[in-house]
Write a structure and sequence with these properties.
The protein folds into 3 domains: about 130 residues, no CATH class; about 130 residues, no CATH class; about 160 residues, no CATH class. The chain contains 17 helices and 14 strands. It is an alpha+beta fold. It has a 5-stranded antiparallel beta sheet with strand order 3-4-6-7-5, with helices on both faces. A 5-stranded antiparallel beta sheet has the order 8-9-11-12-10, with helices on both faces. About 30% of the residues are buried. α12 crosses α14. The protein is elongated, with a radius of gyration of 30 Å.
């Protein structure tokens, strides 16, 4: 740091100082100036290549292409850019050279004119090739992208018994094409958006025109415009920056890696947000019941899926309440159990050194450690570690009289029911330990207080202005047909009223 005039001044790097003094904003008509400016901008960036050449028929016509090695297709550059330029006729006017190159010479599927250095930097570093010529203050950005991407596979976190097996990848255009293939209608709209002061990450906002709620769409654009951050490398960056109830553990933005799920949400009036470089796609608004929905609910029999969905809701309450109820009974309300059962539990706990509350906290934390370790290890080793670790540690802890056998059963029930609702890992963790802490201090009164606080919080959850739990004004069948149960398709006539502007899903005539 330097001191000047009593104020602390930042020390400027020599290269940055040189760039600031020159501060190019737009191309000029001078070929040498443009070339020097670009080389200065991409100084010490070796993958950026400069290739200068002339037309064979007119040596006065000088050209230069700039591209990033590893992100471009060499065959496109050689055959469709350099070769046509070298064979270019000599009867050209300098003032129209770029227009002629754009309309008659270069052979790429996408090309546009630009004079902005900012746009050049964003495009070249994303796989486009810059072409500028002698005497022109504009240049061409040519699409030559060709970088390796992961093949389309079934998402590991969203495996299903029946239904499509394809999942999103890290390539934005590949993901968009999978959705376009499912929704072949002119109502499907895709709008690109750039975010990140350093990364210029490309987003795509996808919605169904005529079905989407325009107020929600405007609110999404408004929130995206308020984001000022260096980089966006994953969809979760966006989730945390634009979500409602910033400190709530519950989600207010949906996420999925499945194209069929995104297509289904779009047809219900939702908006999908694709982020380049990640297979996770965000959907807004997000209703609370979506935490318990699964894509295969719509591919299997509605009796079976209604039962399965009810089990998930029941599992949510079990996984957050079972440890607290056990501690409340053992520590405060022993009279609620049959005498023989409470005597058996008391005998098991006779030689255990820790009180029931500390025992529950300790075992739940150990279980979470085993679960996290199993997730971070390679697949085969992780599964074996989770099973063997739980069995060995649980049996050893009981035999060593560190914990009581009933506590092992309670933790096992808690862990198994938690697997029913993988979308709610964070809320379940907070709710479970919070209610357990209240139960440890106040017994069933603490459990009741904790559940009341939880329900009040859920009732006050919003997603882009939409109530997550009670979006409907009345309990009509068409508003609850896809909540705790899944009605047959022929009875799901209306879309969710809160999320869609056009509520009719089934009519006498398909919408054009």
């Amino acid at each position: 740091m330097l001191w000047f005039g009593g104020k602390k001044q930042k020390k400027i790097h020599p290269v940055a100082k040189q760039l600031n003094n020159r501060s190019p904003k737009d191309l000029t008509a001078c070929y040498e100036t443009n070339l020097s400016s670009l080389k200065s901008i991409f100084q010490d960036d070796d993958p950026i290549k400069f290739r200068e050449f002339k037309s064979n028929n007119n040596h006065a016509l000088r050209f230069c292409i700039v591209y990033c090695d590893g992100l471009v297709s060499s065959s496109i550059i050689d055959e469709h850019i350099i070769k046509p330029l070298m064979l270019l006729d000599d009867n050209l006017q300098d003032t129209e050279i770029i227009d002629i190159l754009l309309t008659q010479v270069v052979q790429t599927d996408d090309a546009k004119k630009t004079g902005s250095y900012q746009e050049i930097i964003k495009s070249v570093t994303y796989g486009d090739t810059l072409l500028f010529a002698e005497g022109s203050a504009e240049a061409l950005l040519l699409s030559t992208k060709s970088f390796q991407t992961r093949s389309i596979t079934e998402p590991e976190a969203e495996k299903i018994l029946s239904g499509p097996r394809e999942g999103f990848t890290e390539a934005l255009m590949t993901n968009l094409s999978m959705v376009r293939r499912k929704l072949r209608t002119k109502q499907l709209k895709m709008k690109f958006y750039s975010i990140g002061e350093r990364t210029y990450t490309q987003l795509c906002i996808v919605y169904m025109d005529g079905i989407v709620n325009n107020n929600i769409l405007s609110e999404l654009y408004r929130r995206l415009d308020t984001i000022h951050i260096d980089s966006v490398l994953d969809a979760n960056y966006i989730t945390e920056l634009v979500k409602d109830n910033a400190w709530s553990p519950f989600r207010s933005i949906g996420y999925t890696e499945r194209p069929d799920v995104v297509a289904g949400k779009l047809l219900e009036g939702r908006i999908a947000l694709f982020v380049d470089g990640t297979p996770v796609v965000l959907t807004v608004p997000y209703l609370f019941i979506e935490n318990f929905q699964n894509s295969e609910d719509y591919y299997l029999n509605y009796y079976y899926t209604s039962f399965s969905r009810s089990l998930r809701v029941f599992g949510f309450f079990l996984t957050i309440l079972v440890p607290a109820i056990y501690v409340a009974i053992v520590a405060f309300h022993r009279e609620m159990l049959p005498t023989s059962l409470i005597v058996h539990i008391a005998m098991e706990r006779q030689n255990v050194p820790l009180p029931a509350a500390l025992e529950a906290f300790f075992m739940l934390i150990v279980f979470d450690i085993l679960r996290e370790t199993g997730l971070r290890m390679p697949t085969n080793i992780g599964q074996a570690l989770g099973i063997v670790g739980a069995l060995v540690l649980g049996q050893a802890a009981v035999e060593a009289k560190l914990v009581a056998a009933p506590m092992i059963i309670i933790v096992a029930i808690t862990g198994i029911t938690n697997l029913l609702i993988p979308k709610m890992n964070a809320p379940v963790l907070v709710a479970r330990f919070g209610i357990l802490a209240l139960a440890s201090c106040m017994g069933f009164f603490g459990v009741t207080l904790g559940v009341a606080i939880l329900l009040i919080h859920i009732l006050n959850l919003y997603s882009f202005g939409i109530e997550q739990l009670t979006p409907g004004q009345t309990l009509q069948y068409q508003e609850v047909k896809d909540t705790l149960i899944r009605a047959p398709w022929w009875q799901m006539i209306d879309r969710p009223l809160a999320t869609a502007a056009n509520k009719v899903r089934q009519g006498n005539k398909a919408e054009e």
